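Kindly inspect both lines:
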Amino acid sequence: MSNGPWTDEENDLIVADYFAMLADDVSTRRYSKAEHRRALLPLLNDRSEGSVEFKHQNISAVLKGLGEDWVPGYKPAFKFQVTLVDAVARWLALNPAWLGRQPGLQSAAGLRESAQIWIGPPPTLSNQPPPQELDQMLHIARKFDVAGRDERNRALGRTGEERVLAHERATRAAATTSTGCRPWRRRSRASASSSPGSATICVRAPARSGRASRSRPSRPRLPAGRSTASAALQNLALLGVGTTADASNPFSAKLNAALWTAKTVAEGGTGDLFFTMNKEAAGDDLGLTLQTGFVTKALVGLFGSDRFRLAVSADGSTFFDGLSVDNATGIVDQPRLPRFKAYTNYDNYVGVGTWTKIGLNNTDYNDQGAFDAANNHFVAPVDGTYLFGATLLYKINASATARMRGRLVLNGTTEIRGSLGEISATHVSLATAIWLQTMVPLTAGDTVELQGYFRVADGYFAADHTSFWGCKVG
């Protein structure tokens, strides 16, 4: 996978794809982030899925700096190349109608709505970015038409004021029609302490005392057994616990502990507890994102398929799969497990009485590149317990009286316990062989090599079948 900076061509491709998703989102059209990502990956320079996801979050950060909407689910991440700002600016220059749009707005005269208007959470009091975002925000600001933004905001404000005014008029008209009351201006009396205000006064037929009676509009009644609080907690668009929720994270909680516990049988429950997460299709993503300082370090779930995956990252951009489980068979794969099988493609000559490193210059497989063919040894990439094995096949030089030995050696000097073997019987060329196997704890950077030895007479360790293999097991 490529870890280098994104090119301008890559940035232009992903920005165009991002705005395609954003256009679908603001138009309430259905779209799949996973499908967009799969279509985009072949066009990029060998980027990982995690890298593409993080770049989408970077684009959200740029759009946040521009005061624009961003795709829900791609939370702004401000650690990005400044060339990404240029790519967004290029796209906006080619699509000038985007900044001039007012999605979802209509004239107040044509409003038709219910008597109640939903009031969302208040905006944050902060009008400047956090310090860690300052450099990126300043770079964005230098490429941003502030006057144009302000004019769009003023137009939006005027439309909002017209909408609220039309709502109030419609509410008053509905009250007058349903109760037969007229809105009156209440006059202040000398004895009243309150200032003048508006009130709805309902004048009805004279009472027996000859005085007019006043009545208050009745409150709506809830169904039996349902409280006002429980009704208010249904179908919420946003919910924040200890923090403010937003469109990207409509349910947000800021706390230090959380508990989910099963309803017991004595309480009328089953004693079980299931927490269910669901995605629409196999190609979509479903999982948990684990972060440090809002930088993603691990992903757990079903990403792009129904295989269970655990992936980790050092920087939140490049991800490595540590575990993958086939949902159809249950077979577990460890894609990053260090493992190798090396062999020699030539006959290795070894003289009498000298331990000699076998020149293993080829590999059948070499995951994580742990076997160093140039130096003919394995290098432990991490601390752990490793299992090794080897095969040494005898090839005659001049005399079949040769007796061969083999062993595995740690760091070029120390014989690994349990790895020494010898064939003492008569040797048959290209038939007599030694098989070695042992397990050893290693520290990252330790090396293990295969060595051969002849006594009585010299000989060869034969090409192709003289091999060395190993893997991490713990």
